[in-house]
Amino acid sequence: MSKNGERIKLLLSEDLSPHKIALLFLVVLYATGFIPEDHLKQVLLALIKLLENEPLIDENKEFIIVPQLVDLCQHLREVIVCNCPEDQKLAAEKDAAELQKNLLQELWRVSSVEGLNTYIKNTFTLLLNPLAVTVPESTSNLTVKKIISPRSFIGDFIQKIVTPFRLLHFDEEFLLFESLVEYRESSRDLFLKLGGIINHQTDLQPKPSPRRSRLDFSTLAQPQPSNSNDDHLFDVLNHQLAESLGISIPTSSQEIVKQNVRLIPVPKHDMQALLDKQVKLLETYGTETPKFLRQIMALMASPDANTCLIQNANFNDLPSYYYLKYLENLHASDYHGALQSLHQYFDYMVSKSSKYFYHFALISRASLHQYFGEDEKALDAIEEAISVARENKDNSTLTYILSWLFNFIRNKPELWQSQNFYQNNNELHLLDFLIKKSQTVSLLLYAMSYHFETAHIMHSGGPMNKYLESLLKATYISINDELPTFIKSCEMSAMVWTRIGIPHLSDLYSDIAFDYAKEVGKLGDEISIEIRKNYLLYLKGQTEKAYKNLESLKPKTNSDRSLFKSLQIRSLIMMVKIDLRKGRFKYAEKIMKTLLSIEIQDIELKTELIYLNTEVQTALGNYSQALGLISQSLSVIDSQQMKIQSNVYTIIRLNLLKCSIFNISGVHSRAISLVIEQIEQGKKLGFFTIIVEGMILLISILNNMDNCEDAYEILDKFMPLALRVGNQEFICVAYYEYANSCYKMIQAKKNRFKLSKKALFNTFLKYLYLSITRARNSLNLILLRACFELEEQMGQECSKFSNEMKDLKSVDEFREHSKSGLKILNKRAIEEADYGFIVNPEHIIEEE
């Protein structure tokens, strides 16, 4: 591997690295009192985190894979300066500069392998003898102000560095020194800027008198002048040594620079921690793996790796590397690459006889097959995982596996008959088991089980108080767990309150979830919540804004094909809804064909597409085809009823859509009984959105059956509920039906409410105006046209009783208003109907 024309060579070790040595030098500064007391706490906290393999972060908030000395100095400055009050910034900058200079002085003073050896071994004088009763006086030339216990965290670190360093061979020490030289080179300009002097014979700097170090380095070897004859003699002797004994002494740092070789230290434990961190980020947040990390790991795993070893390090087969490759290939939708990487991970775990990771590999394989729609293979993998968990009596893993199975099969109810490893072929029994077992396993699984129960009660037609109770339990549990669990509970709450019909609570939970998702940084959660927030925006009538917001999210998902696919589907669904409102029926059908060709795993999303396709066919006038789609969907749900509880919400919506088709096609007698049945069912469930939708449809049927007085009376009592639900399309249609009831009552000449034509006409104008305004704001051209047609009909009706209307607005002016509105809409309707066929069909949306 090469970078910018230089050849990279990896220095593999267990724990030793230049960065760890720099941290050891920082410990020396702490022990000798050269860390400012005002900032001692912050620096020590930062030091502890670094000793625990916490990676450094650059200005782009990305991991620094191979940190340099200048990165450590910058981190120390940020720790000191960023955590102090504004009025103390200047003093903090000076303290940070002083600490940086002290650290750099120590590291730049080391000019030979012997000097490094002496320095590291002398750090043992910082440790208190474990058997000592009192702290002995320091024998060093400089007083050591803080004696460190070997049992402390820092004392343990000193021992972990010094002990393996003492065991190194000379050539290994030389390699470590060379890597330290390269590590500190990045800080040269900073050190000189801070007033430091580099006292090496290879630099063009004047040589001042030797400076005393923090520890006694009187035995430090002084550098000798370079001599070309010595270099020639070294090459000859090294060649003879290689021929006779098969060994050679490593080249000097000047030779490494001459060969343009970059020596990169790769400590095993540091790299493993970094990989584990990246795996977690990729799993949880979808964070892309840094390119340099991938290059290093690829070189480590390569049989032709250009590496050198110290401490007998050998870890080309790090399991996290293969799992990381699996996740990357999965995000890129590379099936073969993902499967190959997973098998490499799987084979490694089997060879190590790791039972825990054996389960994990099986679950990952099941997830891979599920991701690519291979349901039977996914079940086979889960069956094996369940068998292994039972054999090892691993209840925690078994609970997790069954949670995965429940979540998988509830979207694939037909698979209940395919599996034979879970005896109770019913999701309710499995759900009860999960709730009981997950309580002692994990708060995440416990909260998730109650999420499942909430959805199950809602889908099976349970009462409102029961599913809200389960939701409350899930939320309470999630509050006591980590943020990702709480975010999922907020998302679930937002969905439930949307379905109930309390938009303010749905907005509240969506906002809470979004704020925490941004704090945690998980892209999948952010996109999911953004989709929900824009759906709520669509319900409020801001259709174009909602669609544009969804489109603006697409660049964020470029690194995750799965996330992009999910967002694209939602965006296209929103586009179809907009097209139906604008009268672009042919174009909506065209997009619908694209949507139906996409393989979708989520059963609710599948149902939504069936519902949307039925709406498109209804708009095109294909009533028999639309009814056929509904009947087919209902029969599929009915056939699954013995295996899984039916989604009552979906059944009600499909039946309401059937009522709407009956109403449009004039079959009112069949529609009215069916719609009343759905309204009653909605009341039992507490779904006010269903009640409002059903009531508006019932009122429309009554108006079409000329039972306008009943429609008017229902509307008078019903409007507050419709306004509370907040669905602007429902409210717009309700106002239209209100105006339609007034028009029909004027036509009837008599009404039981004994309202005058003038009063009815004023009411008509009021509600028609409200309907037109909302239809225009939400760009619902179909409903807008219906409003103007109703206005025109009222104008014709008004001419029949002009004497009663003489003190009102001129009838001619009223009729002219409706005609001009219809003229504009007819022209727009033609343009919209041709949309996507006259313009470039490749564009999903264009500016109006």
Automatic annotation (TrEMBL):
<keyword id="KW-0132">Cell division</keyword>
<protein>
    <recommendedName>
        <fullName>Anaphase-promoting complex subunit 5</fullName>
    </recommendedName>
</protein>
<dbReference type="GO" id="GO:0045842">
    <property type="term" value="P:positive regulation of mitotic metaphase/anaphase transition"/>
</dbReference>
<comment type="similarity">
    <text>Belongs to the APC5 family.</text>
</comment>
<dbReference type="GO" id="GO:0070979">
    <property type="term" value="P:protein K11-linked ubiquitination"/>
</dbReference>
<keyword id="KW-0131">Cell cycle</keyword>
<keyword id="KW-0833">Ubl conjugation pathway</keyword>
<dbReference type="Pfam" id="PF12862">
    <property type="entry name" value="ANAPC5"/>
</dbReference>
<feature type="domain" description="Anaphase-promoting complex subunit 5">
    <location>
        <begin position="322"/>
        <end position="411"/>
    </location>
</feature>
<feature type="region of interest" description="Disordered">
    <location>
        <begin position="202"/>
        <end position="229"/>
    </location>
</feature>
<dbReference type="InterPro" id="IPR026000">
    <property type="entry name" value="Apc5_dom"/>
</dbReference>
<dbReference type="GO" id="GO:0031145">
    <property type="term" value="P:anaphase-promoting complex-dependent catabolic process"/>
</dbReference>
<feature type="compositionally biased region" description="Polar residues">
    <location>
        <begin position="219"/>
        <end position="228"/>
    </location>
</feature>
<dbReference type="GO" id="GO:0051301">
    <property type="term" value="P:cell division"/>
</dbReference>
<dbReference type="GO" id="GO:0005680">
    <property type="term" value="C:anaphase-promoting complex"/>
</dbReference>
<dbReference type="InterPro" id="IPR037679">
    <property type="entry name" value="Apc5"/>
</dbReference>
<keyword id="KW-0498">Mitosis</keyword>
